[in-house]
Amino acid sequence: MLDRARAEARLDDVVADHRFEIAVVFPAVGAVTLLASAWDLLPPFLSFNPYFILFGTLVMRLPLAAGLAPLVDRKAAVALLALTGYAFGIELFGVTTGWPYGDFAYLIELGPMLAGEVPLGLPVFFFPLVLNSYLLVVLLAGPRARSRILRLVAVAATVVWMDVVLDPAAVALGFWEYYPPGTYHGVPLSNYAGWVLSAAVSVALLDWGFDADALRDRLADCAYLLDDLVSFVILWGAVNLAFGQAAPAVAAGVLGVALLRTDRFDFAVLRDRIRSTRQ
Q1: Which of 87, 108, 141, 96 is nearest to 34 (CA)?
Q2: How far is CA 105 from CA 86, 94, 166, in A?
Q3: Quick one: average pLDDT of 3-25?
Q4: CA-to-CA distance for 59 and 42, rounded, in angstroms?
Q5: Helix%, strand%, coil% for the chain, nearest 5
Q6: What is the C-alpha to C-alpha distance for residues 166 and 247, in angstroms, rounded to an integer?
Q7: Would you call the peptide bond into 188 cis, given omega within 30 degrees of 0 as the criterion?
Q8: Alpha-carbon distance 158 to 224, whole Å?
Q9: Residue pLDDT, tens place only, 46-79
Q10: What's the superkingdom here (predicted)?
C-alpha cells in the first residue's frame, strides 16, 4: 500500500508539473504528425507509426490515470476490467458483424492488433470518450448529477457529441472506414446509436464501481483531471479544421467552451507558457 501511495504521489507530481506539455504540446504535435502522415509528408517509417501513435496516446491519458488512481479499489478495478472486456468485445463484434456501429474496418494499425482486427491498446482510445464524458457531466451538473437518469442521459449525449468530433477526423485521416460511407463526413448515423449503447453500459459500470462521493471530492481537489479532454479538443479539433470539416470542428469548440466553464485549465498560465517558448 505504501509503494502504491508513493507511486500515485509521484505520478500526481509529474502530471501536475507538466500539464502544458501533456495537455497542449503532445496533442499539437500529434495533430501535425498525423496530418503529415495523411498527406504523405513523412518518410514511410514515421508515417502513421503505430508505436508513436500509441505512445503519444498513453502520454495524453496520464491525467486520467493519475487523477483516478487513488479511487481505484477492488470494486473499481473490477468495473474497469469489465469495461475493458466490453470495449474489446463490442469492437470485435462490430468489426465482424457491423453491429452496433455500422460496417467498418481499421485501415491503419494503431499499435499491435488483437486477432488482426482491433488495436490491442483499444482501452486507451475507448476509455477517454466515456470517462471524460462522465467526469464532465458530474462536474458541470453539480448536485443534479446525483440523479442516475439525468446522469445516464447527459453522459450518453456527451459521448455521442465527442464522437461527432472524433469519428469524422479519424475517417479523414484513414484510421478506419465505413461501408458504405455514411452521410456525416463518411460516418453512418448507426455509429452514434451504437455509442448510446456503449455509454449506457459504461455509466452502469462506473456507477457501480466508483464511490460517488469520493469521485466528486476528487474532481473538486484534482485540477488536472479533465486535462485529457483539453488534449482531445486540441488534437481532433485541429484535424477537423485541417480537413475543412466545419461541423465537427465547431463541435470540438463547444467542448472547449464546456471546459472553460469548469474553470479547470488555467489559460493564463497557458498563455504565459506559450510566450515563454517564443522567447
Answers
A1: 108
A2: 18, 9, 16
A3: 93
A4: 22
A5: 75, 5, 20
A6: 11
A7: no
A8: 19
A9: 999 999 999 999 999 999 999 999 999 999 999 9
A10: Archaea
